[in-house]
Design goal:
single chain; 5 domains; alpha/beta; 24 strands; 814 residues
Amino acid sequence: MTEDKSPLYFYLFFIEGIVLSYLYIFFPLTVLFFLIVQFLLLVLKPKSIGESCAKFKSLQTLPHHCYNFISGYGLKNDKRALLLLIVLSASFLYGSVAFHREFNNKIDKELMLFQKGREAPTIHSRVHLIDLPRQSDYGFLYECNLEGLEDFKDVKMYFFSPVALEPGCAYEGDISLRVRLPRRNPGEYLKKTIITIYPEGEMVKTTDHTLLSYIQRLRWRVYRYFSENFDKDTSSLLSAIVIGHRGGNRELYRAYSTTGIAHLMSVSGTHFGLFTITAFFMVRMFAFLIPYKKLLRLTGRISLKELELLLILPVIVFYLLLSGMRIPAIRAFIMINLFILGVFIGRRGSWLTTLLFACFVILIINPAAIVEASMQLSFMAVFSIGLGIELSSTYVGKAKKKPSRIALNFLVITVSAFLGTLPLTLYYFHSLSSFSVFTNMVITPLVCFILLPLSLFSTVVYMLSGIFPLTGIIGATAELINNTVVSLSEVSFSSIRFHGFPFVFVLLIYVMAFSIIKRRKYLFYLSTGFFITAAIISFSISRISYPVVTFLDVGQGDSAVIENSDGRTIVIDTGNTGREVLDYLSYRGKGSIDVLVLSHADRDHTGGLWNILKNINVSSVWDNGLMVYRPDIERITSHVSLKAGDVIAFPEGRFEILHPHSRYHPLFGDDENNYSLVLRYVSYGYSVLFTGDIGSDAEESITELPVNLKTDVLKVAHHGSYTSSTEYFLKAVSPLVSIISVGANNIYGHPNSSTLKRLAGTEILRTDRDGAVRVFSDSNTVQFRAFKNSMLSPVRFSDYRGEFENLKRIFMFW
């Protein structure tokens, strides 16, 4: 009897429609051509060219179907081809509407209205806090909804408060809004617009009475208990595994990420699955304590196993709500409930069908989840585990002792998840943990089988009685786990860094892996050929000559990175947070900074100093000699004060310090800005002048120096302010290219129109419009490249050139 493949086709066609609706934004002609071919195949129903008999069941499902499903081959009833056409068309239209709203609405332009002028407008509204806070050095950030801005529901909103507030409640009063547009840098973590809401005076609290608000207040109560009764690291770990909230402990999260178990710092599918297994066995142990006659009455209509599964259902529902309902947890919850349903109705669906159904449900709720890293990693991990178990079942079954089989299965699960998610992990995080397999086999069971059940049990007791039992055991276990993870993360070889690469390589790697597993020789040759061709194309269109200077998009601030061919990395200013610098260096596969130059003390230039020092090794910090640091700066890195006349040489270039000199005293303008460190980087073929925030007074002082100021690339002073870039100074510098580091539609009006007029005649690039800007030399000619031109851009159906450019961009990297 032939297996009916209709359910798998249904889910696959739905997922395909969502994926194609996303790709249609960038490749409309290509997607349309593919759809026409597929529709013809569904109607004509030719014989499958991929018909073969796979050795393993899983390989007869998803990979085999992916090979054949575009023609609808394998359906018991040919009339179902019409149903598949309807499913594909409906999901394509459904996804198109969702993605159209995200890409083609005018949210960014409309939101910028809030920042017109020098002051953000104050409005009166009600803010609903919908999640627990993220704590920073300055206060607390709450994800929220704002009444009166329902049209902006696709935009993340955060409410800032200097003091802790209770989530699940609403706060009414006068507020102001700040808009943070996506940064356009390689490896950038922030992909969407964010609104931050600030209170302007007293806010009046009101309580929401919805179920989700009540759950948030319960989570807040638990979070506060953890914070007040455990140390910072223990509290962060317990909050992460019990209520799905890390708080703001970036150092601990970085340690878990470095050791390959970052998924433990949130409620992932691993937590959910292993906790369910633990709960099942605990219920089974409890069932054995029930007198036999009572147990017989309880199991008169249902089996003992069905009773046990029924009893754990409210437990996992409670855990899902308490954990914040993230995508991995929802996926695991759906799969577990489908398994329970299958037991009750006497049908055991394949793990693959269950996995695809979970994906189907999540995409119905949120089609945009298909492009999120958490969604891709979660589902690929489960698919890899299921595939690995089937591939190894014959060998594991040969183990005679049950403990040996359990250990082998756990090893298979760990290695399968590691290998299956490896391409995605490298693509999104650019690093590989040396301890990943070890920590997932040792730390993960400790957390999920011991710490999580004990913590959740104590949490339930605390909610009911106000008493939190087992505090000592839980605290000691969490401390042992944290200390082990932190110690491993501090090992020099704990993490291996990789340069970022295009997503097309991820797809080709998976195709190559499939061809190896299936032993498809010709498919392997074909995919390997494509991989080599893609690599050649990528390197040819992305090739640059060292040294290279990259001006990062840090909003209203300054930051630049100089990279030499010997691996030396020099960073000039950090921006407000330093996050963009860290993300860029991570994308470039760099784990240290040789020199960090700080022009002056303004926050938009040095605000990210300590964030960078905490996260990456910095060999030396240079400044203008006027900055004051924390006492421990000398313990962390060496410190050098520079003055005009200093020259520092490197193998591929030199720094000439032009300002400030020892006798300089500004006659007018802002003293802090005018004392900015000004340095010129001279390399093979080109030169770059970094000017900090100097004004006209400092510019006049520099032009009086007995040196030739002519420079190829000018970093325009003070973000293009009208007080800088005087005609006399620009004439002395005579730049070919002018780079303006500035925030989009900032409240200061930078760059000033008069400054732009004075810069006319030079090539002007702005980080608010062009994103990161890269400058390098090619045969003694200055070349520049804007990151905006490397990003996929939405195109119209008739824009052939735009689609061709997008096709080129899928092979580009920085």
